[in-house]
Amino acid sequence: MSYKIAVLPGDGIGPEVMREGIQVLQQVARLYHFGIELEEGIVGGASIDAHGKPLTDSVLNLAKQSDAVMLGAMGGPKCDGLDYAIRPERALLGLRRELGLFANLRPVKLFSALASASTLKREVVEGADLLVVRELTGGIYFGQPKGVTTLPDGTERGVNTEVYTTPEIERIAHVAFQAALKRRKKVTSVDKANVLEVTELWRKIVARVHKNEGYAGVALEHMLVDNCAMQLIRNPRQFDVVVTTNMFGDILSDEAAMLTGSIGMLPSASLGGKVGMYEPVHGTAPDIMGQDKANPLATILSVAMMLRHSLEQGAAADRIDQAVEGVLNAGYRTGDIQEPGCKLVGCKQMGQLVRDQIDRAKG
Ligand code: IPM
Ligand code: MG
Fold first, then answer.
1. Active-site residue, from 254, 292, 318, 348
2. I need a surface site. Which of 35, 73, 179, 247 has the fewest CB within 10 A?
3. Which atom in ligand 1 lies closest to the alpha carbon of residue 253?
4. CA 284 to chain centre
5. Ligand 1 atom 2: the closest Cα is on which residue?
6. Ligand 1 pocket test: which of 89, 93, 104, 134 has the largest number of ligand atoms within 8 Å of its C-beta?
């Protein structure tokens, strides 16, 4: 068995964390006897510099012809003034859209070794283990009309549109219920149905899928997004699977990430099309780029998600997850999760420690 992986390191700390993730991938490929063919592509700010746009057709084709895509991070301060149409973030939205990746899975699991790295009290976060299922190709991110126009009086008017259709809601609801069946069998659907008609529809369709499509074994609750933002930090253990719109999912997943101590710990999978895409939830972190300070664990855990969801190599994925846990239990920390009494390491050393742990687990 051999797999073709498109590797898109991107900008900022993307290349640094990707290097560690790929080395872990190559290591488990050797241990579990499967082949890996890597092909690298330039995206984001790097692609703007080289080709004048953040996502070229050749990179898009590379992604489409692969078994899976590993993505680093895109963007950076020097791109902030650019026109929206050519900003690095567009590459990400373009990839999601073109690959049909409508379901974004962001697991938020607190490693017990990190309970005191969280900004919340240990007794609140300990044991938190939830999965954010974010709709990724619809909603206000893509809805029409959008844009900024100048009015006759010279002032401007900006518009974005939140749109969801029945099939878009149905398919993401299925992803959430299916995921819940493999977990603690609870789905919290998050909306703003008391104000926004589009999410009133969201609530209605999610409830209908639950009732009519054989998910009686899963408990469904509906929660308003403002309440959910509060409940996430009040009592995160109440959540199992949280399913929500593109915009609410963007916001709530960053909030939920902080339960784990650092957004540097969070992997993600974007699914729904033929090719899955895997990326750390964190951004390009330009303030620490090139200094060997980045936390590669989110990327390494994203490799594990890829092995599980796209490559059917669950044993290799488990081995990576356990190795990350082992390294944290042994007291090694990158700067973002450092705490008194722990050993501070850089990006490269953290990657090496995980690989050593993977090797050790074999014997
Ligand atoms: C994310 C990011 C992206 C998003 C940005 C970079 C376009 O914040 O993946 O959560 O908003 O989806
Ligand atoms: Mg985000």
1. 254
2. 35
3. 10
4. 14
5. 250
6. 89
Q: Between 297-309 and 347-362, two packed helices, what is the crossing angle to 10 degrees?
A: 40
Spatial distance between the Cα atoms of 95 and 63, rounded to a whole number of angstroms: 8
- Report the C-alpha gap between 255 and 259 in whole angstroms: 7
- What is the DSSP pairing of strand 267-271 with strand 103-109? antiparallel
What are the residues facing 268 on neighbouring strands?
Answer: 279
CA of 225 to the centre of ligand 2 (A): 16
Ligand 2 mean position to 213 CA, how many Å? Answer: 31
- For ligand 1, whether the C-beta of 191 sits within 6 Å is no
Active site residue 11: no
Q: What is the pLDDT along the chain (363 residues), one digit of tens a residue?
A: 899 999 999 999 999 999 999 999 999 999 999 999 999 999 999 899 899 999 999 999 999 999 999 999 998 777 777 887 788 888 899 999 999 999 999 999 999 899 888 889 999 999 999 999 999 999 999 999 999 999 999 999 999 999 999 999 999 999 999 999 999 999 999 999 999 999 999 999 999 999 999 999 999 999 999 999 999 999 999 999 999 999 999 999 999 998 988 888 999 999 999 999 999 999 999 999 999 999 999 999 999 999 999 999 999 999 999 999 999 999 999 999 998 999 999 999 999 999 999 999 865
User: 297-309 vs 314-329: helix axis angle to the nearest 10?
Assistant: 160
Half-sphere exposure (CA, 13 Å, Cβ side) for 113?
Answer: 18
Q: Is the backbone peptide bond immediately before 145 cis, with ω within 30 degrees of 0?
A: yes
Catalytic residue list contains 80 = no
Strand locations in the chain (E): 2-10, 35-40, 68-73, 103-109, 129-135, 147-150, 156-159, 186-191, 219-224, 241-244, 267-271, 276-280, 332-333, 343-344
In this structure, what is the dihedral angle of CA atoms 232, 236, 241, 247, given to the nearest 10 degrees?
Answer: 20
The CA distance from 133 to 40, in Å, is 28
In the residue annotation, 191 being an active-site residue is answered as no
Q: Whose CA is nearest to atom 6 of ligand 1?
A: 89
